[in-house]
Predict the structure of DNA polymerase IV.
Amino acid sequence: MTNDQRKPVKVILHLDMNSFFASVEQSYNPALKGIPMAVAGNPKERRGILVTCSYEARALGIYTTMSVGEAKRICSDIVIVPPDFEKYRIASNAVFSILRTYTDLVEPVSIDEAYIDITHIGGLTNAVQIATNMQQRILHELDLQCSIGIAPNKFLAKTASDMKKPMGITILRKRQVPNLLWPLPVIEMHGIGQSTEKRLHEIGISTIGELANAEELIVKAKLGKNGLRLRNRANGIDDRPVDPEAADERKSVGSSTTLAIDETELEPCLKIFRFLAKKVAKRLHDKGLAGQVVMIQIRTADWHNLTRSRTVMNAVYKEDDIYKEAISLFKLHWKGEPIRLLGITVSNVFPIHELYEQLSFDNFEKYAKEEKMDLLVSELEKKFGPHAVKRGLNER
């Protein structure tokens, strides 16, 4: 095989916007630049939680998830602004539009990050030049900062983008993994949270290097297939392609059903909405998504289609919340016509880890406990089948 016939070395960029929500606020209001500032779910409530903060605030020891009260004790002059998610969505779309002027192989993975495959538009030879050009265009056209990782796969590119912030460009090669990554504790590795860290510690794995060199059977026995994926990534191996269509799949999640008869009674319709809400919630859970718009579809017996939607303050992903919004819309807009089809769609979806509410310490703890319980139930159902676990009722 000649050099010309060899498969080109894959080159993937991971672009990560720096302190995105705070940076967007600073872009809209230049008076916020160069000062300690933060975005918080409820700025007037001292127990409100910081969604993000500027680098000036971070330099003082202020960080995301800290309460407004704690932040003000560190810096009494910190400026707190409420979140404006629509503003952030507009800025996010503008960033991705710039990236798509280089290649169609752009995969947004959250509101403020994306993978870009530049293998066939310059490859490694021109990677730094392309990344620099992207970074400068986003800065000059949108007044926003970003960091970019350059690597042969997604995992290493994402790892690289974290190495220098703000406004960093970092190349991470597979051969550098033993020296740069292996000495680090496993919690520093993307894809490993506190729960996985604890389980790895139970089998004597504390560093990324120990995970990379662990026996496959031991890791699989403890963590299943995900353990093997993590072990591969600890060795710098990740064959996931950049998939532009994956982003399209995240725009909305829905389900609809054609009724056995043309229904005119409320109660049977509510049961169908409960069924649909359960299906949509499961799909959102499987994809790790939440959404801010709930839409219902009603098709009448004479084939008239009606859609109605509502934007919710706190994004939904649980069955009960989806059902509540759907039936509220239905009761408001259904005029009693015979119904042939009903549907629910949750749109404006995004990865659930971005879900920030106006949290106080009290309900932050409540939601954290609920999330842990949801994950436990999910794991048990994977092992023993759907509906194997049912929540009990509190006895008073």
Q: What stands out?
A: Residues 361-384 form the longest helix (24 residues).
